[in-house]
Design brief:
By secondary structure, the chain is α/β, with parallel strands linked by helices. It contains eight helices and 32 strands.
Length: about 450
């Protein structure tokens, strides 16, 4: 890599340039984890556990069969073969959920189903395929349904193979023992964790709720997908991309259709959305154009003050619009608004700029609201070798984020598309972001780069 600029440029014209790291630190310093609540299990999916959960009873709570077959005493089937089967008296059925259990004595067996408790006296289970199924014929392929032939719960069964003690028996507590730690605080509850909680009898659990994130795009040129385009209009992709990204990060996302370039309309829309938002995200309207209305609109939402420049003391009721030493995504806005000091991140409107900005700043904010540890707030990154036909250029004094395809097997990354902030198709085929530091203006093939993994 060649170098030609200081790593942290501080000024551009009359305004300070913020580094990516400074801006992210500022955002995270204003975000606090949501307060814990008690939720039903399915409502807690995707949430972060705030307490250790211990096992109240052993799992499984009793010795049970792992096969459909016959519960037997091992001495009664010792030496059994197809030529010389062990002939046992069937004393009843044991189905899953059975209460009263038959006792298996010498020379006896009980027909048993998968998951059913092992009856007293029995020491092992022989699969039905090792028997004649009580039919008096050859090896059985399965059991006759109890409703169709209740007599098979009695009579005799011929066992063609011996069984060792505890064969095909799931021992009580073989999964978890009473008092064991089932799940630790900080665990994200996915389907397997929900299953474990249900299995140990927990109907509710205390978690931090999934953040509610409201996403809205701005621009009078935006048309919703499915509608007809007219002269000068384009489809609104940003609100869909960012709402999907918010869900991917673990949030409950609410997408608001594109808001026209009118400060009063945008202000009213934001005020309406505050009631259901733990975090607000806007895209577009944060640059220096005559129709960039986000700054104008936020000048009075929730008694906010708009600040140009440093804005070091961002707090409730204060918005800061700043320039970052990065590409794409130079113009950014951040602050807290409304009576509850709801965090708001105002992202640029170019599709790639808004998505990269989301990954770098909004996703960590969502993860922080969830109460995740710092190690899980940011996307994971790796080092990879650039595989390209030519050197990649990067502007002096900017940290550049280029779309890439990361090959984990070979430890390489290849560029996808160009550096333009409007190239949505290239973004759709990328699985990573290549990071070019601020002091690097050219990256030669074969150079090792930091790579942020997406998805």
């Amino acid at each position: 890599m060649s170098s030609s600029a200081p790593q942290h440029p501080r000024l551009e014209g009359d305004h300070r340039l913020w580094s990516v790291d400074e801006h992210l630190a500022d955002v995270l310093s204003a975000v606090r984890p949501l307060e814990p609540i008690e939720l039903q299990l399915l409502d807690a999916q995707g949430c972060v556990l705030v307490e250790d959960v211990t096992v109240p009873v052993a799992l499984p709570p009793f010795d049970n069969s792992s096969m459909d077959g016959y519960a037997v005493r091992t001495a009664d089937v010792q030496g059994a073969s197809e030529e010389f089967p062990a002939v046992l008296t069937v004393v009843g059925d044991v189905a899953a959920g059975s209460g009263e259990l038959p006792t298996v004595g010498p020379g006896e067996a009980a027909r048993i189903m998968t998951g059913a408790p092992l009856p007293p006296g029995a020491e092992a289970v022989v699969p039905v395929e090792w028997t004649d199924g009580g039919t008096g014929g050859g090896a059985a392929a399965g059991m006759t349904p109890a409703s169709a032939a209740p007599e098979h719960a009695g009579g005799e069964v011929r066992v063609h193979r011996a069984a060792e003690a505890r064969a095909h028996v799931r021992a009580r507590g073989s999964d978890v023992q009473a008092g064991d730690l089932a799940l630790a605080a900080g665990t994200i509850l996915g389907p397997p964790q929900i299953a474990l909680l249900a299995a140990i009898g927990r109907g509710t659990v205390r978690v931090r709720p999934r953040p509610r994130v409201v996403v809205m795009s701005t621009g009078s040129e935006l048309v919703q997908p499915g509608e007809a385009l007219t002269a000068g209009t384009i489809y609104d992709s940003n609100s869909f991309a960012l709402a999907a990204a918010a869900r991917d990060a673990g949030a409950i996302a609410y997408r608001v259709g594109a808001v026209a370039d009118d400060a009063d309309t945008l202000r009213a829309t934001i005020e309406d959305q505050l009631i259901r938002a733990d975090l607000l995200v806007t895209t577009g309207g944060v640059s220096v154009g005559a129709y960039d209305v986000v700054k104008e609109a936020l000048s009075s939402v929730g008694h906010s003050d708009v600040v140009e420049g440093d804005g070091e003391d961002v707090d409730g009721g204060r918005m800061d619009f700043r320039k970052l030493a990065m590409q794409p995504g130079k113009p950014q806005g951040f602050g807290t608004i409304g009576p509850d000091h709801t965090p708001l991140l105002a992202l640029p409107g170019n599709p790639v700029s808004s998505y990269v900005s989301f990954e770098l700043f909004v996703r960590p904010a969502i993860r922080a609201l969830m109460g995740l540890p710092e190690s899980e707030v940011r996307r994971p990154s790796v080092r990879a070798v650039l595989s390209a036909d030519k050197a990649l250029g990067s502007p002096a004094g900017r940290r550049q984020f280029l779309r890439g395809t990361y090959d984990a097997e070979n430890g390489t990354v290849s560029p996808v598309g160009g550096s333009g902030s409007h190239l949505i198709a290239a973004l759709a085929h990328a699985n990573s972001l290549m990071v070019v530091p601020e002091d690097v203006t050219s990256v030669e093939p074969g150079t090792e780069l930091e790579v942020i993994l997406l998805g």
